[in-house]
Amino acid sequence: MTAPTLDKLRDDPEAAWLWDPARARLVWANPSGIRFFGGETLFYLLDQPFAPEEPGVARIVATARTLSRGHVDEALLHFPSAGVTSPIACQLTVHALPDGRAGLLVV
Known about the structure:
The chain is of the alpha+beta class. Helices cover 25% and strands 27% of the residues. The chain has helices at 6-9, 31-36, 42-46, 55-66, and strands at 17-20, 25-29, 72-77, 88-96, 102-106. Strands 2-1-5-4-3 form a five-stranded antiparallel β-sheet.
């Protein structure tokens, strides 16, 4: 399975995020992903600190350590800080960050 490009996900109705797992930070999100975390713009999320112990963030960081490029992991991610009471089903793939390090694309 080939990971979708950020350009393809930009207008997708499903939330999509590109995480920098080493910093537990978001570096990109589509409009649905921005709204999921209560933001109006991407800049809101770029400045948003995420607690490493939050279940969804912890899973993203752990998955990034073990997932190989070209593979897809499916996970239920829970972000209680976003006011979401139930975990959401996501697909996680390795995706290059702008500086060349490995990030994690979550859709």
